[in-house]
Amino acid sequence: RLLPAPLKDAVEVSMWRKCYTMPEVNAALSKIQLVGYSQKIELFGAVQVTPLSSGYALGSSNWIIQSHYEKVSYVSGSSLLTTHPQPMDQTSLKNSDVLILTGLTQIPTANPDGMVGEFCSNLAMTVRNGGNVLVPCYPSGVIYDLLECLYQYIDSAGLSNVPFYFISPVANSSLEFSQIFAEWLCHNKQTKVYLPEPPFPHAELIQTNKLKHYPSIHGDFSNDFKQPCVVFTGHPSLRFGDVVHFMELWGKSSLNTVIFTEPDFSYLDALAPYQPLAMKCVYCPIDTRLNFIQVSKLLKEVQPLHVVCPEQYTQPPPTQSHRTDLMIDCQPPPMSYRRAEVLTLPYKRRYEKIEIMPEVS
């Protein structure tokens, strides 16, 4: 309904066109070059780019783009919290001529630790009252942290006989890959890999049958399905994936609860097509990306000559215009940009490196 025409008129799914075939998707992916943290890549002999750990998710990166005389840092979704990925590399960002800053937290007033606690207590309360819990989620990212928190919480809350189901076409590979790629993990998880022990507790949950994963709701899942239970499945927008089935199955009972943890979508918009809804809705957005206090501290430490950021970060949120703490404040003031705007970055080149034949020189 909110999409531009003609998309908003194409309600009939049968009218939708397939954009890409699987071979086309694979052909596009085959052009991607995989790199490791701190690996230097030459681009056409003009600039050198280097990915750095951003501390936000497995493999998430910030980038240094460097010529012979200039250094530009690109800081996207980053986190200073201690979770499962490798910690953020801040020292490499120092001495930047320009620091491009984006991907800050979408919910600057919510504390991730408090939200995780609220998530666990709402989940336990629903299950104790005989209801089911639905968690619309992505197949990787925050789900690893949620499973880790639940692992520590299950026994103390008396939930050890409640089944947890993770349903996604990539559920199995997501859980396995998170255990294999040790180079993306924080130090204490890396050391477990070499012991060898599984770095994530979800491996133990799977072994003890507390966590079961399925590619879809058809087949094995329908035979094993027991209630009350907790289901992790996608998509957080509630518009596609197996989550749609569970919303329709459990929506009519007030015993059940849906818990939203992803801040990417307005949960009220997501729920709109399912109204009237009897099931309880809890919003516990967990966003571990940098907030404005952390950004101020980071900028003081790395001291770039210029900061470039989206226009939204240079003013308080429209709903809280008095909160001047919810904006970027640095000297000199940041350069802001809007969507699709072309910027000229504020530095002048004084030198160029060239190669010349001795005879010519």
From TrEMBL:
<dbReference type="GO" id="GO:0160240">
    <property type="term" value="P:RNA polymerase II transcription initiation surveillance"/>
</dbReference>
<dbReference type="GO" id="GO:0005829">
    <property type="term" value="C:cytosol"/>
</dbReference>
<dbReference type="GO" id="GO:0090287">
    <property type="term" value="P:regulation of cellular response to growth factor stimulus"/>
</dbReference>
<feature type="domain" description="Beta-Casp">
    <location>
        <begin position="143"/>
        <end position="271"/>
    </location>
</feature>
<keyword id="KW-0963">Cytoplasm</keyword>
<dbReference type="InterPro" id="IPR022712">
    <property type="entry name" value="Beta_Casp"/>
</dbReference>
<dbReference type="Pfam" id="PF16661">
    <property type="entry name" value="Lactamase_B_6"/>
</dbReference>
<dbReference type="InterPro" id="IPR001279">
    <property type="entry name" value="Metallo-B-lactamas"/>
</dbReference>
<dbReference type="GO" id="GO:0032039">
    <property type="term" value="C:integrator complex"/>
</dbReference>
<dbReference type="GO" id="GO:0034472">
    <property type="term" value="P:snRNA 3'-end processing"/>
</dbReference>
<dbReference type="Pfam" id="PF10996">
    <property type="entry name" value="Beta-Casp"/>
</dbReference>
<keyword id="KW-0539">Nucleus</keyword>
<dbReference type="InterPro" id="IPR027074">
    <property type="entry name" value="Integrator_9su"/>
</dbReference>
<dbReference type="GO" id="GO:0090101">
    <property type="term" value="P:negative regulation of transmembrane receptor protein serine/threonine kinase signaling pathway"/>
</dbReference>
<protein>
    <recommendedName>
        <fullName>Integrator complex subunit 9</fullName>
    </recommendedName>
</protein>
<comment type="similarity">
    <text>Belongs to the metallo-beta-lactamase superfamily. RNA-metabolizing metallo-beta-lactamase-like family. INTS9 subfamily.</text>
</comment>
<dbReference type="InterPro" id="IPR036866">
    <property type="entry name" value="RibonucZ/Hydroxyglut_hydro"/>
</dbReference>
<dbReference type="GO" id="GO:0160232">
    <property type="term" value="C:INTAC complex"/>
</dbReference>
